[in-house]
Specification:
It is built from six helices and no strands. By secondary structure, it is mainly α. It holds the Pfam family PGA2.
Length: 165
């Protein structure tokens, strides 16, 4: 019962917790968050590279299917066999590669340099920063309110001892 009462007092800001994190703990948490942020960006870059690498191989074939109406009636393996007989394997898969890569490079570059377009990781980082700022403002306002209430209570205690004229 006493523990629950203490926790309630901590939540409303009247009491402080007994185990306040040390500066070393806070530094450790900050380094861990920085590490996670760095790893997230690396994994995002790797994922984008794999996406482009996985898509470009079939891009030329997909363009052929979309370009010619008669390919809609042909099975994939017949289409592949026909295209293979017309050109080499490298020509089959590398057709249109420079344009495709340039388009993806422009798309990735525009996301990086556009001020309004933020990646999910950037949005999360900015949102966490905004949340911390708002929470700090709320905590500061609550501390000011509690300090003012405490001053008012102290004034009431000594008010009876003041000489009234």
């Amino acid at each position: 019962m006493i523990r629950a009462h203490n926790e309630v007092m901590q939540v409303i800001g009247v009491a402080e917790p007994d185990n306040v994190p040390t500066e070393a703990d806070l530094e450790s948490v900050r380094r861990h968050v920085d590490y996670e942020e760095t790893m997230g960006h690396r994994l995002l870059r790797i994922g984008r590279t794999l996406e482009v690498g996985g898509v470009w191989g079939v891009n030329g074939l997909r363009a052929r299917i979309l370009l010619y109406k008669r390919y809609a009636d042909i099975s994939f393996f017949d289409l592949f066999r026909y295209e293979r007989s017309q050109c080499s394997m490298s020509n089959l898969f590398l057709a249109g590669l420079p344009t495709f890569l340039a388009g993806h490079a422009l798309k990735l570059g525009s996301h990086q340099w556009a001020p309004s377009a933020a990646t999910g990781a950037d949005w999360g980082k900015k949102a966490r920063r905004r949340q911390r700022e708002v929470l700090k403002m709320m905590m500061d306002a609550e501390e000011e309110r509690l300090a003012q209430e405490q001053e008012d209570e102290e004034d009431k205690d000594i008010e009876e001892f003041l000489i009234k004229e």
